[in-house]
Amino acid sequence: MVKKLVTGLLAAILMVPLVPTTGLSWHGGPPPPHYRSHGHSRHHGGDAVLWGLGGLLLGSAIVATAMQPSPPPRQVVYVEPPPPPVTYAYRPPVSSGMCRWERYVLDGYGRTVFDRYGQPVKEYTSGPCDYPPAW
Predict the structure, then answer these.
(1) Residue 60 CB neighbour total at 10 angstroms
(2) Of 18, 37, 66, which residue constitutes the final position of a domain?
């Protein structure tokens, strides 16, 4: 709301030179001859500026409140990720109704890691046979 009010006020202030009015201009001498003939009275420059700025502030506030407010920020909800399956460097014993899953260990570039004897390193886990583990 405050950001919109300040933006509206700034836009209104920047528009003042483009729309000059008699109320915002400074009167530096006697009024022109036709000015008094129509029943106008002479205004002091300070009063006109105050009225102009007051109208500017009031109009900016009205425009800012008429604008639709921004939607409330989303609430971030952190969810505990499921625990990763337990991995073993050796073949774990498997109970009945469970399966043993194995995969090759990969480095950060997706290449297979080898042990010091040149054999690919595998890791194992056990779990239900219905679906593979989420490594």
Answers:
(1) 20
(2) 66
Give DSSP secondary structure letters for 14-54: HHGGGS--TTTS---SSPPHHHHHTT--PPPHHHHHHHHHH
Q: How many domains does the chain have?
A: 2
Hey, what are 111's tokens? 């290449």
Contact in structure between 23 and 43 (CB atoms under 8 Å):
yes
Residue by residue, pLDDT tens for the chain (135 residues) are: 788 888 888 787 777 666 656 445 555 555 555 555 555 555 555 677 878 888 888 888 888 888 877 778 888 777 676 666 666 677 777 778 888 888 898 888 889 999 888 889 888 888 888 888 877
Whether the CA torsion 51, 53, 54, 59 is positive or negative: it is positive
Q: What is the pTM of this model?
A: 0.32
Q: Is residue 72 part of a domain?
A: no
The helix-helix angle for 2-15 and 45-66 (nearest 10°) equals 140
On whether the CB atoms of residues 115 and 121 are closer than 8 A, the answer is yes
